[in-house]
Design goal:
The protein is of the alpha/beta class and 202 residues long. The chain contains ten helices and ten strands. It has one domain: P-loop containing nucleotide triphosphate hydrolases (Rossmann fold). 42% of the residues lie in helices and 18% in strands. The two termini are 23 Å apart.
């Protein structure tokens, strides 16, 4: 997993240099092709008007029911859906009133994973969920890390402490980068964040 700022990416593209995926300059990639390999989960969970099945398969309508259920179990949303009167065929509004906030966020994560993206972006996706839901999300990400890049934008140290690389930003400027263990030893700002959020430091 990797923590990176979308703002930083935009600033760097505007000032100098290039952004590449597998060595390919993004300026040479059609937007439609880029969309096929990237999925994003935002801070505010958004459900489309329709059934939960429709929502879960929105980015990949040809996904099998087996894939949908497997991913739903992985992120911890299958059981709550199964308890609904119509299960996966339960109609939901854009606000998803039949589901809790955390459950809606898990549906959004499952929807992103069902598309099997090469790049998964979580933009403050765990900032408003309870610790139990955050742990479900973390477990799902660990299970789905293989052969994909996960970019997490967050203020929570607990969300990124297992990342391969953490980039610490302060007012849009890179202060340091490295693993959790490296940063807690070498970055005063990171240690301060850990202490503020009651994350253990030596």
């Amino acid at each position: 997993m990797l923590l990176l700022s979308a703002i930083l990416l935009r600033e760097r593209m505007r000032e100098s240099g290039i952004v590449t995926i597998d060595g390919v300059d993004l300026r040479n990639v059609k937007f439609k092709s880029l969309r096929r390999c990237v999925s994003i989960v935002l801070q505010e969970p958004y459900l489309f008007q329709g059934t939960l099945r429709y929502n879960l398969k929105f980015g990949r309508p040809d996904a099998s029911n087996d894939d949908m259920i497997r991913i739903s179990k992985l992120v911890g949303i299958h059981e709550p859906i199964s308890k609904l009167a119509n299960g996966y065929d339960e109609e939901v509004s854009e606000r998803g009133s039949s589901l809790s906030y955390g459950q809606r966020q898990l549906v959004c994560l499952a929807r992103a994973l069902i598309t099997d993206p090469k790049i998964l972006i979580l933009d403050e996706a765990t900032s408003s969920v309870d610790p139990y839901t955050e742990q479900l999300i973390q477990n799902a990400l660990k299970a789905e890390m293989s052969n994909r890049t996960i970019i997490i934008v967050t203020h929570r140290v607990s969300t990124v402490r297992d990342a391969d690389r953490i980039v610490v930003l302060d007012h849009g400027q890179v202060q340091d980068s490295g693993t959790h263990e490296y940063l807690e030893k070498n970055s005063e700002l990171y240690r301060h964040l850990c202490e503020m959020q009651l994350v253990r430091v030596p």
